[in-house]
Each structure stands twice: as C-alpha cells, then as structure tokens.
Amino acid sequence: MRKLLFVLSFVGLLAGCVVAYVSGITQSPLPPAFSPPTNPYPNGIYAEGLVESDQPSGENTNVYPEVTGTVKQILVTEGQEVKKGTVMLLIDDSIQRATVEQLQSQAQAASTVLEELKAQPRKETLDVSEAQVVSAQAALKTAQDELDKQQAAYDINPKSISKDALDSAANAVATAKANLDVALKQRDLTKAGAWIYDINNQERQYNALFKSYSSASALLSKYTLRAPKDEIVLAINSTVGSFVSGQGAYDAYTQGMDPVLVLGSPHAHLNVRCYVDEILVPRLPTPARMKAQMSVRGSNVKIPLEYVRMQPVISPKIELSDQRQERVDVRVLPIIFRLEKPEGLTLYPGQLVDIYIGE
Fold first, then answer.
1. Domain segments of the chain as ranges
2. Which fold has domain 61-92+223-263?
3. Which residues pair with residue 250 across a beta bridge?
4. 316 Cα distance to chain centroid
5. How many C-beta neighbours within 10 Å does residue 340 have?
6. Per residue of the chain (359 residues), what is the pLDDT tens digit?
7. How far is CA 171 from CA 149, 166, 258, in A?
C-alpha cells in the first residue's frame, strides 16, 4: 500500500513538472497581416481620402428623375458600361402617355379645321351659291314679266286690272330684286373664302394646342432615364415597383433619400478626394510641388498620386462613414488626386484610404 502511494506521488510530481514546463514555453507572435501606414514625407500632411470615379469636374454622376412614379423596368445592371443615350430605367408613364395622345388628337383636329378654312371656298358650296343666284334671277324675271303684262292691260283698260293686283305685282318684283341682291352677296361671300381673322384665330388655337402637346411629349420623355454620357453603372438604388421622385429613392437602411442611379467612369482610372483640415492648409505646398501617396487600408499597398485640382472652398467636414451626413466642428479643403489602378488590387469608388501629402 505504501509502495502504491509512493508511486502515485512520484507520478503526480512528474506530471506537475511537465505541466509547468509546457506552460512556461512562450510562442512567437504571428507576423502582422499588414504594416500600419507611415508618413513617407518629412513634413507630410495626413488626410482621409475617398476613392471616386475620374471626372473632369465634380464627383460621380448621380441620376435623379425629374418626375415621380413607380419604377416599371430596369434595363442595366451594376458594373455595366453604358453609352450616351442608353435607356437605363423606365418609370410608369401610362397617365402621361394618355395625356399626350389626347393633346395630340386635339392639335390634329385644330389643324384640320385650319386647313379647312384655308381651303375655302369649297367648289360644291360655291356651286350652290351660283345656283341660288340663277334661281333668284329667274324669279325676278317671272315677277317682272307678270308686272309688265298687268301694266299693259291696265294701260289699255284701267278697269280690266284692279289697282291692288297691279300693286301686288310691283311688290313681287321688288321682293324678287331684293332676293337676287341677297343671292349675289351670298355668292360673293362664299367666293371670298374664310375671313382672315377666323384663319388667324384658328391658327393660334392650333399653335397653342401643338405647344401643349410638345410640352407633354417632353415631359413624357422624362419617364425614361438615359445615360448622360459614356460611363459605368456604379449603383442602382431602386427596384421594379419602387416609388421614386425628384429626391431619389428611399433607403430603408439609412432612412434617407439616395440617387436612383450612380454613374462613374471606368475603374481603370480613379480619383481620390481627400479632405485637408483647415489647420493644416497653410502647410500645403504649391500644386506644382505637391506630391501625394495613398495607403490602402488593410494592405501594405502604397500608390503614388497625381495632383488634379482642388475645390478652393473650405466647407464643414462631413463624416465619410456616416450615411446620415452629420456635420462636425471641422472645416476642410477638398483636394483631388488621380491614380492608376494597379493590377490585382481591389479598389472601388466609395472606398476609404489614407493620404499623405508632401513636397
């Protein structure tokens, strides 16, 4: 029994020594995945940058519709290169299209009436007027012949024709002359065609309706969003069936309004927009002597930058990572640099990078 206790004690002591030895072994630390960015310039200025597409001025192209409605169809995909005028998105235009067709019909009707006025006198209408003149002339001759007969009889024997009958025949002649005069004037009026004032009035009505139709047609074209120039689709912030307006599309995640489409230049050429604190602005070198280097976060990549331009307006800084755009008590000067995207590097517009500016 004592031997067993001795053996167990020895085994326990040996196990304790082994555990103490293993626990005392220190493992060498793993190498860092990437080195922290360092300032390559003796008096370099640090700034936070935002990658964006290469634009001659401004930033990415944010596309907003000029009308409100429901998205009917999306004809492009994110990452697709589009040419100028390419149809990208359709908004339901059924009501506006019906309005355009109605105004078009009204303008066509007004045009038809205007052509009708200009085409007067119509041959068939003029023929009727001529026939009425001939009829009035015949009626006048009949009345005149009747009056001449009664007058001759009265001259031979005054008792053969009563004075009333003679007066009635004279009145019939006067009526026939008046009817002929009316028929002649009606023929002249028909032959003269439409009154110039009626033509001018109808022409103005047609012009007003045609301009209303043209305006409605121009508004109808706004329901189709086209590419303003040759670019690449960076983001589509809406889906079929979503409601969009001039403020853009509602984003449930940020609870704000985003542009319906975001376009940019091809990713072979990118810009970096950095924001320099106004305290550091006096230390900036002149553009001719300015150099810059970009460090991509999460990697050891360092890319030289080419100065493009600056926006000479110092404005309140907007938190780059805050989609709600809360302003802070810092004012910054935007400076834009250009970079050539290295092969094999994952870099996209909207990515945050570190910028060092020196001379």
1. 45-54+266-358, 61-92+223-263, 125-193
2. OB fold (Dihydrolipoamide Acetyltransferase, E2P) (2.40.50)
3. 257
4. 30
5. 12
6. 666 666 667 667 777 776 776 666 666 666 665 667 777 888 888 888 888 877 776 667 889 999 999 999 999 998 899 999 999 999 999 999 999 999 999 999 999 999 999 998 888 888 899 899 899 999 989 988 888 888 888 888 877 788 888 888 889 889 989 998 998 999 988 888 889 999 999 999 999 999 999 999 999 999 999 999 888 898 899 999 999 999 999 888 777 888 999 888 766 678 888 888 888 888 888 888 889 998 887 777 888 998 988 888 887 776 554 444 444 567 888 999 988 777 777 787 788 888 999 88
7. 15, 9, 90
pTM to 2 decimals? 0.65
Is residue 304 reached through a cis peptide bond, with omega within 30 degrees of 0 on the bond before it? no
Contacts of 109 (CB under 8 A, 6+ apart): none
CA atoms of 46 and 293, how far apart (whole Å):
10
- Cα distances (Å, whole numbers) of residue 207 to 86, 105, 120, 217: 32, 13, 21, 15
Q: Is CATH 3.30.1130.10 the right assignment for the domain spanning 45-54+266-358?
A: no
The architecture of the domain spanning 125-193 is: Orthogonal Bundle (1.10)
Q: Are 205 and 108 in contact (CB under 8 A)?
A: no
Q: Give the bridge partners for 352, in sequence order.
A: 50
* Secondary-structure breakdown of the chain: helix, strand, coil percentages, each rounded to the nearest 5: 40, 25, 35
What is the identity of the amino acid at 25? I
Rounded distance, CA 133 to CA 123, Å? 15
Look-up: residue for tokens 């121009």?
Answer: 218
Tokens describing residue 58: 């401004």
Q: What letter does residue 349 receive in the DSSP assignment?
A: T
Sequence letter at residue 239: T
